[in-house]
Each structure stands twice: as structure tokens, then as C-alpha cells.
Amino acid sequence: MNRHPSRTALRVVVTGSFAVVALALTGCGPDITAGDESASDRLQAPAAEQPAGEITIWDRSGDLYEVFDAVIDDFEAKYPEITVNHEAVDINAKLQNTLITGTDVPDGVFLDDALVGGYAEHLWDVTDVLEPYIDDIAPQKIDATTVAGGIYGVPFDLNPGLLYYNAAALEAVGIDATTIETYDDLLAAAKEYQAAKPGSKPIHLEQSPFLGQLQLEMYASQLGTSIADSDGELRLDSDEYEQILTFLDTVQKEGLGTRAEYLSPTDIADLDNGNQVFYPWAIWFDFAPQQLLPETSGDWRAMPLPAWTEGGARSGAMGGSSFVLPKDGENADLAWLFYEFLMYDEAGYSAVWGVNDIYPSGLNTSIPAYSPAADPSTPLFEPIEALGGQDLWAVATEAGSQIPSGTAIPSWWNGAVDYLGNDLQRMLDGDLTPAEVISSSTDGIQTNLIDRQ
What are the b/e assignments for 85-113, b being 16+ CB within 10 Å? Predict the structure, then answer.
């Protein structure tokens, strides 16, 4: 089983802390508009055959820091004249002031996709250096970090949404989860399970406003939409969001949902006792059966998400991170070489996602955003014992290939949690209808976030 000491911090505590910097970022979006982009804003790769210098790379402390750290020796063997200073940093607490003051600015930073738009004016446009690889990078990842035609992040992971299910519990009552193809099928299966196990509430309903909004955007991603269009204009008032919210409202009203925060003690208890058997979430839910579910580890499986319409996309993006290159870093061009090695060199991406000292069976909580690295026939991580030996690589790479293209994540996304995230919870409390969520959130976001930029 993988050693996974800090994944909860990485995916819950840290992502949740986006909101801490949200107010600072909201209203301070980039001063970048169509037509302002110039060649001087675009990073260029070093011209020297053997580039030389020192680079400072910021990553969060924890397991991914250790993974990236372990690859540095291989990188320095390829580029012997480049020295990597790798620092574990509380990025959300430190990056903003560092970029504003221009003091001790790192050359490269690991950053959540949801924050890239808010920092874009301080970052290099990486369109030119990505050009040799861009056709092979998941379009959703490129779109997520594109602002006014420039690309401001080197994509790291792809986080396809999957439907995790307790196969043993479902099979015990005669339900074959693999026959679920649409969300209507999921509702029917949940009702059937509840009839066989009275008192159960089979489908997870997220209680955290932040993660609830993130999951909502996963559902929207399946339908090829998102909270804002490519111009940053709100588009919550749509048939797609009404359909998603109506589904969630139905799950709640019909008593088919377990309302709990992601992997809280209540959530874990209901997962382990067979009360909660369907979990639509990003690939990184696989941490739970590997580390937190002693009673049902081995019983869980993963499959593509149900489709919203028959034949529709079976996955959407939920979360993700990229590497950014600050303009005030002394050697951002050399830092690009480090990220190029990590993400686009087989030796690099195999070391990140493959079997290593940090993850003895490979890093299995995401897949690469680069399609040659995410080859379904060439798995980088091994089948997962806690999923009954299932080949999650095959499931996740197929799901990832179905994620529709998206749009840039607006700089005010995290601030929107105060409106959309909270209104979603009010709906699940029974206080708002889906239409009222759309109306209230649209008014709040437009008035308090977008109009104040």
C-alpha cells in the first residue's frame, strides 16, 4: 500500500485554504487584455547547448515535495551546469507578497489551477515553450490556465472525475454498478440499494461549501460548461446548471444522500459501514480505501462517472495544479527546463508517477496531463490492492480522455464560494430551490466580485 502521509492535507486542507487568499486575489485580476500580449511577455527556452545557473523551486511540503525532490538528481545529470535549490514553502501564505514586493522571487512555483488567473500579471506566458507539446496536453488543462490568449501554467496533473462504489455491498443485494450509465441510472440504483438496506443513504452529498463548489464544477465540466465563459462572464443561469442542481436537490429530498464533509469522521464511518456506497469524486478519492477505510478496503472500485445524457461525456475535471514561472525570478528559463524534464521527458514523468521510494506502487491519485505519459497501455502506477486489485490507471486514463475542453478559471473563483458554495449548501438544507441558487449566486458574484474588479 502506498505511503500517503500528507495527501489529506494536500487535497483538503491546502485546497481549502484557497479561500484564505481569495479575497486578496478577487478584484486584483491580471492587467492582461486581448491585444496587450507581446513577445516580451512570452518565456523563451535557453539558447545555450549546456545552460548554466541556479534555480529556486517552490513546492509544498509533503509527499509531492519528496517526489519532485527525488527527480532532481536525474535532472542535474542531464543539465550538469544547473543547480536546483528546492524549497518547501507555504505557497498560499507567501507567494502573493513575494510577487508584489519582487523580493527573493522563486524561479518556479507549484500552484493550484484555480489561483493561476489571479497571479497572471506576475507570470511568464509559457505559450512558446509549450508549443512542441501543446497538441498532446489535455485541452482542459491548457484552458484552465489561459488568460486573454496567453498560457500561464505548465500543466501538472489531470484529475478526472470517477464514480467510486462499494462493489461488495452492492453485489450483496444484487446490484451491478457497472450497468450504471447515466445519473438517472444512479438514482435508480441508489433507490434499489436503500430498499435492500433500509436507513442507508447511498450517494455522497458534499457538505463543505468549497469542495461542494469544486464538485459542482466537475459535474459542469462533463457538460462542457463552467462558472464563467472564456471572457470571464458568468454563465450559471443555464440549462446545464439547472440540471445538475436539480439532481443534487433530488438526492437530498428523496433521502438518498449522506451529507458529510469529504473524509470527515462522519463520512468515513458511513463509507465503512455500508451506509454510503456511491462517491462521485475526483480520482484522488482512492486515498480513502487505501488509508482510511479498514473495514471496506478492497471492496471499493472505480468507474467513469455516469453521463448527464445518454452517450454524453463520462468524466469532468475536479481540481488540478500547474507549475508557474514568475517574471521576477532570475532564471525562469532554466526553471522551465526543470518542468519540461518533469512533465515531458519519459525519465521525468516516469519518476513522478511510477514506482518510487515515496510511492512503492506509484503515484495513483492523479494521472499526467500529457497524453504520451497517460498511455492506457503503459501504466505508470500499479493496480491498487485497496480497490480489489483494479487497474485504476486504465479507468482513469480512459475517463481523462473524455473530459471536454474548458475555460480559464476566473481570478474570483474562490471568492465565489461565499455565494455559490454557500447557496448550494442552503439548497441542501432545504432553504433554496435550484432556480434560487442560480439567481442568488449570480447576483452575489456579479455584484460583489466581478463588478468590483
Answer: ebeebebbeebbebbeeeeebbbbbbbbb
Phi, psi dihedrals of residue 324, rounded to the nearest 5°: -120, 155
d(C-alpha 441, C-alpha 227), whole Å: 10
- Buried b or exposed e, range 412-435, using 16+ CB within 10 angstroms: bbbbbbbbbbbbbbebbeeebebe
DSSP category for residue 314: S
Residue type, 340: E
The residue assigned the cell 492587467 is 31
Q: What are phi and psi of 163, to 5 degrees?
A: -100, 105
Residue corresponding to grid cell 522571487: 105
C-alpha cell at 238: 443555464
Q: Half-sphere exposure of residue 112, counting CA atoms within 13 Å on the CB side?
A: 28
Q: What angle do CA 93, 148, 446 make, to 5 degrees?
A: 70
Q: Which helix (H) or strand (E) holds 55?
A: strand 53-59
CA dihedral of residues 221, 391, 153, 212 (deg, nearest 10): 40
What are the distances in angstroms from CA 294 to CA 31, 118, 129, 219, 273? Answer: 50, 41, 46, 29, 10
Amino acid at 187: L
Name the one residue in this structure whose C-alpha cell is 453485489: 171
What phi and psi, each to the nearest 5 degrees, are found at residue 435?
A: -65, -35
* pLDDT, tens digit, 9 for 90 and up, residues 14-56: 333 343 333 333 333 334 433 344 568 999 999 998 999 999 9
pLDDT tens digits for range 360-396: 999 999 999 999 999 999 999 999 999 999 999 999 9
C-alpha–C-alpha distance, residues 349 and 337, integer Å: 13
What CA–CA distance (Å, rounded) separates 391 from 346? Answer: 21
Whether the Cβ atoms of residue 307 and residue 314 lie closer than 8 Å to each other = yes
pTM, 2 dp: 0.91
Tell me the β-bridge partners of 54.
83
Residues 6+ apart with CB under 8 A from 141: 113, 153, 155, 158, 317, 320, 322, 369
Instruction: Give the Cα separation of 406 and 194 in Å (integer).
Output: 36
Asked if 140 and 317 touch (Cβ cutoff 8 Å), the reply is yes
